[in-house]
Structure formats: structure tokens, C-alpha cells
């Protein structure tokens, strides 16, 4: 089949002509499209929407969040141990200072120092690695309550009461917890029982809108127990898996706080006898030694079943988790390393120690 043949007898070669014409058209279209793409200019507008944040994997967030604590410990330990062959009391004193500055708490630091002393039974072996290993292993022992934390109740709704002083990150953590439970395909309901400030109610409602989660709220100044009561009713009626209850953080009057928390508990138990199933105390990791006093104070007014440490991203004192665990033997349930919804995750003791002692 030659070209002349086709031209001489076009009617006998209609199929070939059609294929050829399609190929030519396709070629022209492709060249045209390429030319258009190369020359097209997309205008850049400065009023553009906010760029979407690129979600980082949790391990990176944890790594970044704990970087200040890690740097402080790393530099401190290297400064003491590098080039040293024998362990001296002076080195142990310096080590005490470094660990104390990471807010581990003085009683716990004493125990860690003792573990280093014992690990250094051979005086010629005083390497940094041996000391680090001794501190790591002993710290893991102190974090034992978190390793063996009892699983969450299977109750539906699972009722979690969130308590803590003002500004530690209760409301923000509730938003993040809601995001976490949602990611586990659980339906969540929020209760705005911090009725003290209007802003607190609104803040929770903003999280609710953002996450498409319903918030049960009353007016500012209303009885927190009444909102809690309504929220249990709503959670039961809606078949919610998890109910998270925000509370006010006034600690200046322990008597009032105790009364308020007791009333909330009593009201919750009206419909769900074993509620709240969990009572989590939120602690701001940047407040250092204050965290110890806060646990002590709240322990005396509530039946704490877990802790959440927030703002680990803003401190070099992330060692506070070790000391508080050692002293109060409470499980750390979650840790927060930033302000994004994804920045709160279940606490994994080994991951945390790996990050601060690497
Ligand atoms: N950097 C950082 N900020 C946090 C974290 N958690 C909470 N915050 C901030 O701490 C401030 C107080 O939080 P809020 O939830 O209102 O505390 P509340 O008074 O206990 O309810 C807010 O500005 C939060 O964005 C965290 O893990 N990292
Ligand atoms: Mg709040």
C-alpha cells in the first residue's frame, strides 16, 4: 500500500485515511497543548488562602518537640564525661546539676545518680555511654506506671474528665484528643463545663466546628455540673463513643474546686454509675517544679487516673515526666508537642527516652 495508491483510489482506502487523519490531528493537538502549557502564566495573588500545612509524621514532631531537652542533656552529659577515664565525685555532682536542670526532681535525680555510681563499678570505665545507659534504664523503671497503664474502659460513652490549673492546655488538649479519637473512628462529644469564662466555651466550640464534633454548652456562669449532666444525656442519646469534659482551672480555693469536682462527679454518676471512667490531669511541662505541686493538689481533690503533659516543645525541662512518674506512680496517657491538632499522641515511654537521651 503506497501513498500513490491511496491518492489514486481514495474510496478503497477509507479506513487507512481515517487512521492517518486521526494520527495527524492527535499530533497537532499534543504540540498545541505543550506550547500552551509552556506559555501559560498562572497569576500569583498575595491574597491567596493560607497554604495548607504539610502534616509531619508524629515521630518527626516528637523529635522536634523534645529537641530542647535532648540538646540540654546531650551537651551537659558530653561536657562531664568526654575524655574522662575514672568517675569522680565531682563528675557525679555535675551530673546531678544537669539532671536537676532538666526538672527531673531532686529525689529522682538522687536515684539516677546512684544508678550511675553502681554502673560504674569498674573505675576505669566511665564512658558517656555507660552513664547514659544507666540513666535510661533507671528512667524506664520510673516510667513503669505508663508502661503498665490499665486499658481504657469499654463503656459507651467513655467519659473522660479533664482537669488542671488555668493555662496548662486543657481546652486545647481536649480539641486534640477529639481529633485523636476521631482518627480512631470513634464518635466524640465535647462538654464545655468550664463555664467560668465565656472565652473558654467559645474556644471549645471553635474546636468543635473545626473537627465537626458536637459541643454541649450552657451560658457563661451557669452550673458546670448541669452542663456535665446534659452532656451525658446527649452522649447516651447520640450513642457517642467518647465524652470529653472540659473544666475550669481555678486552684486558688481548694475547697471550691473540690466541691465543684465532687458535684460534677456525683451528677455524672446519676446516669452512668462508674463515671467518670478517667480523670486526667493536664500539666504544662514548661512550669517545671510546679507540676509536682499541682499533682499533689489535684490528687487530694480528685481520683486521678492519668496525666497529660503539654508544651514539651517549649522547654528544655522535659525531664519532669520522669520525676513526676517516679514520685506519684501515675500513668502518662498523652503528651503534647505543639499547637496543631496532630501534636498530641499517646505517651510511649521508650520513644520519649530514646528522643531525650539520643
Ligand atoms: N506550644 C504548645 N502550646 C500549647 C500546647 N498545648 C496547649 N498550648 C497552648 O497553651 C495555651 C493555653 O491553652 P488552653 O487550652 O487555653 O489552656 P486551659 O486554660 O488549661 O484550657 C494556648 O495558647 C495553647 O495553644 C502544646 O503542646 N504546645
Ligand atoms: Mg480552658
Overview of this structure, please?
This protein has an eight-stranded mixed β-sheet with strand order 3-2-4-1-5-6-7-8, with helices on both faces. The mean pLDDT is 88. It is of the alpha/beta class and 358 residues long. Helix content is 53%, strand content 11%. Helix 9 packs parallel to helix 10 (198-211). The structure holds guanosine-5'-diphosphate and magnesium ion (MG). Residues 170-171, 194, 200, 246 line the site of magnesium ion. Residues 164, 166-172, 249, 310-311, 313-314, 336-339, 343 line the site of guanosine-5'-diphosphate (GDP).
How confident is the prediction overall: mean pLDDT?
88
Bound molecules: guanosine-5'-diphosphate, magnesium ion
Figure out the total of helices.
Answer: 15
Shape: flat
How many beta-strand segments? 8
Strand order of the largest sheet: 3-2-4-1-5-6-7-8
Question: What are the secondary-structure elements, in order, as H or E?
Answer: HHHHHHHHEHEHEHEHEHEHEEH
Helix-strand category: alpha/beta
Amino acid at each position: 500500500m503506497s501513498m500513490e495508491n491511496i491518492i489514486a483510489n481514495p474510496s478503497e482506502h477509507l479506513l487507512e485515511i481515517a487512521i492517518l487523519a486521526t494520527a495527524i490531528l492527535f499530533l497537532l493537538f499534543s504540540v498545541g497543548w505543550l506550547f500552551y502549557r509552556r506559555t501559560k502564566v498562572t497569576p500569583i495573588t498575595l491574597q491567596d488562602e493560607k497554604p495548607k500545612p504539610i502534616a509531619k509524621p508524629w515521630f518527626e514532631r516528637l523529635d522536634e518537640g523534645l529537641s530542647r531537652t535532648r540538646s540540654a542533656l546531650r551537651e551537659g552529659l558530653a561536657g562531664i564525661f568526654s575524655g574522662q577515664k575514672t568517675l569522680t565525685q565531682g563528675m557525679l555532682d555535675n551530673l546531678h546539676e544537669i539532671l536537676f536542670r532538666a526538672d527531673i526532681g531532686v529525689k529522682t535525680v538522687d536515684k539516677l545518680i546512684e544508678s550511675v555510681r553502681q554502673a560504674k563499678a569498674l573505675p576505669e570505665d566511665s564512658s558517656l555511654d555507660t552513664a547514659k545507659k544507666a540513666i535510661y534504664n533507671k528512667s524506664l523503671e520510673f516510667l513503669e506506671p505508663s508502661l503498665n497503664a490499665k486499658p481504657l474502659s469499654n463503656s459507651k460513652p467513655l467519659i473522660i474528665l479533664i482537669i488542671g490549673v488555668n493555662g496548662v492546655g486543657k481546652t486545647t488538649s481536649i480539641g486534640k484528643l477529639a481529633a485523636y479519637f476521631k482518627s480512631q473512628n470513634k464518635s466524640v462529644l465535647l462538654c464545655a463545663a468550664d463555664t467560668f469564662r465565656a472565652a473558654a466555651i467559645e474556644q471549645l466550640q471553635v474546636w468543635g466546628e473545626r473537627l465537626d464534633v458536637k459541643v454541649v454548652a450552657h451560658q457563661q456562669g451557669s452550673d458546670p455540673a448541669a452542663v456535665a449532666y446534659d452532656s451525658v444525656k446527649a452522649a447516651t442519646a447520640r450513642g457517642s463513643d467518647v465524652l470529653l469534659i472540659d473544666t475550669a482551672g481555678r486552684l486558688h480555693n481548694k475547697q471550691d474546686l473540690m466541691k465543684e469536682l465532687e458535684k460534677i462527679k456525683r451528677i455524672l454518676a446519676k446516669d452512668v454509675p462508674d463515671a467518670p471512667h478517667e480523670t486526667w490531669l493536664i500539666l504544662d511541662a514548661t512550669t517545671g517544679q510546679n507540676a509536682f505541686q499541682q499533682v499533689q493538689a489535684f490528687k487530694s481533690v480528685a481520683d486521678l487516673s492519668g496525666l497529660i503533659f503539654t508544651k514539651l516543645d517549649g522547654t528544655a525541662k522535659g525531664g519532669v515526666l520522669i520525676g513526676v512518674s517516679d514520685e506519684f506512680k501515675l500513668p502518662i496517657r498523652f503528651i503534647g508537642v505543639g499547637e496543631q491538632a496532630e501534636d498530641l499522641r499517646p505517651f510511649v515511654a521508650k520513644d520519649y527516652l530514646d528522643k531525650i537521651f539520643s
